[in-house]
Amino acid sequence: MIQFLEQTAGTGNILLTMVLPMVLVIGFMYLIIYVPQKRQDKKDAAMRNSIEIGDEVTTIGGVVGRVAAIKDDTFVLETTSDRVKIRFRRSAISSVEKLDMGNGKDDAKKDAKKDAPVKK
Question: To pair with 99 at 20 to 30 A between CA atoms, which of 3, 47, 61, 64?
């Protein structure tokens, strides 16, 4: 009976030494590959959902232009000064440059300086 218990305890140690490294490798791969990819996917989805009319967009195919119209899952891109319009899916967006409308606070300060009386 004692020999049987010693044999099963030895088998448990061998099993532990075989399974533990595999579990650690799988956990390491999860942390190194899966978690950062999910974080990047969330950033990309937020970028694609934040496009507005007038933003400059680059597609995954390299087409650069301004957003002319937006529908549910597609957008229309104006590519040249000839106003060539092409419809793309939102998933085709590689990068977005927001339309710079100016900062309201800076404009208000400039207007206040213009309207202020000049001291002589």
Answer: 61
Please give the helix or strand (H or E) that residue 68 lies within, else none: strand 64-70
DSSP letters, 81-100, are: TT--EEEEEGGGEEEEE---
Average pLDDT over residues 41-62: 92
Question: Whole-prediction pTM value?
Answer: 0.59
Q: Of 99, 2, 1, 113, which is closest to residue 51 (Cα–Cα)?
A: 99
State the number of CA atoms in the 13 A half-sphere of 101 facing the CB: 6
Q: In what order do the strands lie in the sheet with 56-59?
A: 85-89, 74-78, 64-70, 56-59, 93-97
Alpha carbons 14 and 39: distance in angstroms, whole number: 38
